[in-house]
Amino acid sequence: MNDIERQVLRLIGESPDSPDVFTDDDVGMAPIRDSISDCVEEIQSLTGGYTETFLIPLVANTTFYRLNFERGSFGWVRDAWLSGNKRRLTQTSLPKLAMEYPGWFQSTGTPEQYFHLGKDLIGIFRKPSSSSDVLEVNAVVIPGPYLSGERVKLKNQYHWAAVHYAVGEFWASRGDASEAERYMGLYQASIGLFKPLSIERKFTQATQ
Amino acid sequence: MTFADELVKIRRFLRDPEGNIWDTDLLIELYNQSQHDLQLDTAALEDVAVLSNPPKYAFSYTHDFESEFLEGQGYKALRQQQNFFACTYRGEAQDFLGIESDVTDPGTANFTHPWEAWYSEPNMPVKYPFPHNFNAVRQMWWDSKTIDYRPKKRVQSDASWETRSGIPQWYYREDETSNEFVPYPRPSSASWNDETGEGMATSVEDDTTASEDGTIIQRTGNVLSSNLGVAVTILDTDDNLAMVYEISPSKVDSIADPLDWPDFLLKYVRYRCIQLAYQANNDGNIKSLAGYWGKRYQIGLEAVRRYMAKRSEDRDYRLKTHDRAGARASGGTLRLPDAYPAI
After folding, report:
1. Would you say residue B324 has pLDDT above 80?
2. pLDDT value at residue A182
């Protein structure tokens, strides 16, 4: 049981050392671990806080490369480095390519640009004329659910956010919408990305 | 990830692990609606597909009622007079009414399986199936050359549009429901290399083919790394129809069905599904919890929009005036290379 899980148990009235309902095993802790994993995914997909670098061997005359991750999900590309040519690829998009280079899909040569498609695809423009280069991609990876004993891939600053998130979901699963909403507000305030407690905002009508 | 995994979590938040209030069928329907809502709100899902040429269907049929007994996407063969009769040539309709057959067809043969069109002079265009989860085309190519949409009435400005073959330049669609399109002109050649099976080719070596519609979903012969770590799948587009398309999330029919969404977006579909479940007019109708999960879904929508915007964070933006060339213009004055000898 990690620190985040222990703190969640304390806040919902369970003893972390001798839990009654949420026993310290995969089945007993599943609801809390699922909530914390969901929170990690949400924060990382918003902040791009966790990246990995991997190599894509380019294949002659091939534009699209699908990235199948063993664990976690592909988020987005931070930078793409063409190793053999020692140059950075710039980012573009499908509509931009279609507008600027109508015949882009048949153009071969040294890759210049890349674009992101869907959940796991990278497209290369120009497609390489030979299978001789490697694209080194630094990409945001959204971590998959963590297992017992594994590191939670979350910056320390957000650990309390994960606690609030999980406690909020605990109350929601108990049918207490009010408490769930209160903790979800605390979660939003913790990550600072959404405007929390909007219910307390005062709206006034201004004259011309 | 399958729907079964999500169902456990949904039931946990509904406090109904045995399905006493919300049965599985209801939750499947609500989940399908939720998938539809999230995709409509965010357009987060898109994909690339390489389509077989000649097109592959799961089966061919001549009357609508037949398709109800079969699974997958079928090819409606020949010419239809609704469910009354199917005919091969137009003159048969005249014969049926007792009029002497007089009209001539442009080609010499009709076909029941699309691949037969390449062994004859067909009197009909050949239809191709879109992938089963298709919603809208973003871009389409034939052998790496862009082919654009063109309304059928413009295609018909060519008197021989039904039989014209060559290099496809455009595609048209008869309607949105049939999930098919017609490349125009019809590709003059088809890829028969490496195909196995007798009669109708059923597979191409090293390809995994979707049974529903003949889409090549994975070309395993070109997978460069193992299942561990990051595996890269290559999509070969040469001599094929390729397309980037917006997905309509695959409908869940049973709890074992896989889900189209990346794992980290699944929770937003779940939130919407729980909201809808609490809104359902049954013993579990609880407005406060429906409101809570509704707010959670709205926050999720905002999160997805931010994620979509983040995907462009590596873009280089530059200002330009309206009468200047675009991104590739140098903009500055000419400069000699650094290694050029000093004057």
Report:
1. no
2. 94
